[in-house]
Amino acid sequence: MKYKMIVTDLDDTLLNEKGEISLRDKEAIMKAQKMGVKFVLASGRPTFAMKHLAEELELSKYGSFILSYNGAIITECSTGKEFLKESLTKDEIHELHNFSKEHKVHIITYLDDSIISETESEYIDVEKNLTGMPHKKVPSFKEYVNREAVKCIMLEEPKYLKLVEEKLKNKFGDRYSIAISKPFFLEVTKLGIDKGNSLIKLIKHLNISADEVIVAGDSYNDISMLKVAGLSVAVSNAKPEIKEMVDFITSSNIDGGMETIINKYIF
Questions:
Q1: For the range 116-121, what are the long-range contacts, defined as Cβ-Cβ under 8 Å and sequence gap of 24 or more?
Q2: Where is 203: in which H helix or E strand?
Q3: Phi and psi for 213 in degrees, rounded to 5?
Q4: Phi, psi of 6 (to 5 degrees)
Q5: How far apart are alpha carbons 87 and 190 in whole angstroms?
Q6: Which region holds residue 71: left if phi is over 0, alpha if psi is between -120 and 50, else beta?
Q7: How far is residue 165's CA from residue 142's CA, in Å, rounded to a whole number?
């Protein structure tokens, strides 16, 4: 069997419009795992918001992993132990908060499995609904966030956020990893932390080759891991730039995109 691992993004790639794994995709995934293929979830989501999907797919039974927070944390599903964890310092988070205030965008981070912000926003509501995590609106972000955390997200209307992304990269591109996931989410992690670099560490740990890995994604924060893959795949609903760079375009996230990949390259 040529491919030993499938790595997939979640939102708008594996998950359908209801935020669920379709039955046809799940059946294909379970069959592939029974054949010995490892199945890895890689998302900007917090670990907390991925565990139920890992449990649904029985990843612990098949010795697989979760890459959460855009790769800032890798969790071994069978033990719950963190194989990798890279965090932003308190001072770095405060610096990003200052930037967000200057450019009038919302900012969140995560502490103790809660979303932390000092503002309310329809885009923060999207993250609350996606993750199922509680939201703590605090009087002072900088006073409350008094220790390290793995990631910040800046949130605003997509066209304006693209301008903010450019300014953020111009100012801090040599200090942080910066990528848009959803059009209204601008994600910031420690420099060098992205899905691709974390995937490289994982495949080395498992003693497999990148040529034996299939990666599926749809958006900009998937680019780094798509470049690592032996076979890079975009769902048909992916951003145009993503579809231009991959080896194969599968069907959409609502039309059995993962099933199509598995049927074509595994069975």
A1: 116/141, 116/144, 116/145, 117/141, 118/144, 121/155, 121/156
A2: helix 195-205
A3: -115, 130
A4: -120, 125
A5: 6
A6: left
A7: 22
Q: CA quadruple 173, 179, 185, 191: dihedral positive or negative?
A: negative
Task: Give the 3-state DSSP-derived string for 152-196, with helices as H, strands as E and coil as C.
Answer: EEEECCHHHHHHHHHHHHHHHCCCEEEEECCCCEEEEEECCCCHH
Structural element, H or E, at residue 73? strand 73-76
90-102 helix and 158-172 helix, angle to the nearest 10 degrees: 130
Running along the chain, 267 residues long, what does each successive block of 10 average in pLDDT?
Answer: 95 96 98 97 95 98 96 96 96 98 98 96 96 96 97 98 98 96 95 96 96 97 97 98 98 98 96
Tokens read off for 155: 């949130």
What is the reported pLDDT for 1? Answer: 72
Specify whether the CB–CB gap between 155 and 107 falls below 8 A: yes
Structure tokens at 197: 């670099």
Looking at residue 119, what is its pLDDT?
A: 98
CB 261 within 8 A of CB 6: yes
Return phi, psi of residue 166, to 5°.
-60, -45
